[in-house]
């Protein structure tokens, strides 16, 4: 690995996806004029947000670092990159921080490449969000943009899992020119693991990505779906993450930028990130095997998503064979 220091983001690039008022809010958090009580009162106005005297600096460094490595990969100076940053970004909306996220790091970097660096020739970007929570902020920022294929796989549980509501539903597919370019895979239950995620890769993401043919792959790499995470309740192993990433490396000549999102068990976070970095470095062959079949509910979700999107992606129109669907683990109650 080549290790870089963090870079500050410029307001003009943050403003590609965030409002001036939002930028002003984040900037003001770090003001010496604010004490901890006032910061706490400010944070209380938002959903799952924490502020301290270092929040502004951290937010600028996180966004700037993702911009920096995305540009370096786009220029061919790096083969791929992993931005290990905090705070995360995918919940941050245009004018509202939420879910520990202040600036939407991946969305800013994606807009930067598409709108500020046209000379690099990047016209289509695939964003894969495998954080256990829905990437509501990223979805809204590219809702009508066919240059961005946004794919989020997440616990949804019919809108009861954070961030809640209908935004993460499979029927939320984009609008206008962006219709069909927003793909949500909403799990009905927890406990989903390698077999469930890889079934979605094989029967939805990979076929659509081949048709889309992106110039770069950006990954909102949350690891709170990993085994042992206290918030996620899912069971993805380091092997599972390495296989998912390896399949994405077939696109865009391997130009992949990963940006850290959620992850709340330091051991599973570390082992999962390491597995991904080894894939990016092509350091060792991927070894392991699936030990289970997808849940019955997973096949239901896959079929519903394919049906919803088949008008936009004809490759999804074919029915899945029954002998495939029969390979399943019974539904569990959690």
From TrEMBL:
UniProt xrefs under Pfam families: Hist_deacetyl
Catalytic activity, reaction form: N(6)-acetyl-L-lysyl-[histone] + H2O = L-lysyl-[histone] + acetate
Protein name: histone deacetylase
Gene3D superfamilies: Histone deacetylase domain
GO CC list: cytoplasm; histone deacetylase complex
Keywords: Chromatin regulator, Hydrolase, Metal-binding, Nucleus, Repressor, Transcription, Transcription regulation, Zinc
EC number: 3.5.1.98
A GO MF term: histone deacetylase activity, hydrolytic mechanism
GO biological process: epigenetic regulation of gene expression; regulation of developmental process
Primary localisation category: nucleus
Cofactor(s), names only, from the UniProt record: Zn(2+)
Assigned protein family: Belongs to the histone deacetylase family. HD type 2 subfamily.
Coiled-coil regions listed: none
Compartments where located: Nucleus
InterPro entries attached to this UniProt entry: HDACs, His_deacetylse_dom, His_deacetylse_dom_sf, Ureohydrolase_dom_sf
